[in-house]
Write a structure and sequence with these properties.
Distance between the termini: 9 Å
Largest sheet: 6 strands, mixed
Number of helices: 8
Structural class: alpha/beta
Strand order of the largest sheet: 6-7-8-3-9-10
Shape: globular
CATH topology of the domain at 13-115 and 184-244: Rossmann fold
Length: 245
């Protein structure tokens, strides 16, 4: 299900021209997944759901419900205690580390703690996923500059992260997650450090990216934000998941 917001903002032209269409198999599939840490109680219990190609959904629930664990499972940072997790059609329990790396490169991630590198400028942080891919700067500089201007950081692209505000760091983290045009975007509270107006602008960008082929999963506590969009909600409570919409 694609999201709908008031108004249509569009994406930077270079991103529109080259977004991936994605595969037709489920992007993510959980089958009766249980997860516990050590000898503690299960954090997730019998969780089953799919994220379809080109889909848009929110992940919500109270603190401690298991949202972070579910995101870590999708990111292949941890393996389930029981059940099956498949990402881009690959069941992850026994795959090789190089395959894990290739799967992760098909994802974009916005973390709550930003994870910007303090010794790199805003521009360099956003361009980093493209450098890792081995692309020459001449092939991506205009694309990075255009996206930074779009998120309101055109005048801050040569500034180091310690000199950015919390909201500016959030925008840089979002731009870095988007620049490689991922097939799946995972965003953990992506509008938590920006004002409501910019939050709506960023949400519309994520929705437009979804319309162009990127599957989007946004973890959030912000019901006002979710009410802006007609999108499926994955609701976690006491380790169990229900689907709304």
């Amino acid at each position: 299900m694609g999201g709908k917001c008031g108004g249509d903002l569009g994406v930077p032209d270079r991103m529109r021209d080259s977004l991936l269409s994605g595969a037709e198999e489920p992007v993510v599939q959980f089958e009766s997944v249980g997860m516990r840490y050590g000898l503690g109680p299960e954090v997730l219990s019998d969780v089953s759901f799919q994220i379809a190609p080109h889909s848009f959904q929110f992940l919500t629930g109270p603190s401690g419900a298991g949202k972070t664990t579910l995101l870590r499972l999708i990111l292949l940072s941890v393996r389930p205690t029981r059940g099956l997790v498949s990402v881009f059609g690959e069941e992850v329990s026994g795959i090789a580390s190089d395959t894990l790396t290739s799967l992760r490169r098909r994802m974009g991630v916005v973390f709550q703690d930003f994870r910007l590198l303090d010794h790199l400028t805003t521009y360099e942080n956003v361009a980093l996923p493209l450098r890792v891919q081995g692309r020459a700067e001449t092939s991506y500089r205009a694309e990075v500059v255009e996206l930074l201007r779009w998120v309101g950081l055109g005048e801050r692209m040569h500034v180091l992260p310690p000199l950015l505000s919390g909201g500016e760091k959030q925008r840089a983290a979002i731009a870095r997650a988007l620049i490689a045009r991922p097939e799946l975007l995972l965003a953990d509270e992506p509008t938590g450090n920006v004002d409501p107006g910019l939050g709506r602008r960023l949400l519309r960008l994520l929705i437009e990216l979804n319309r162009l082929g990127t599957s989007v999963l946004i973890a959030t506590h912000d019901f006002a934000l979710m009410d802006l969009c007609d999108a499926r909600r994955l609701v976690l409570g006491q380790g169990r998941l229900t689907v709304e919409g």
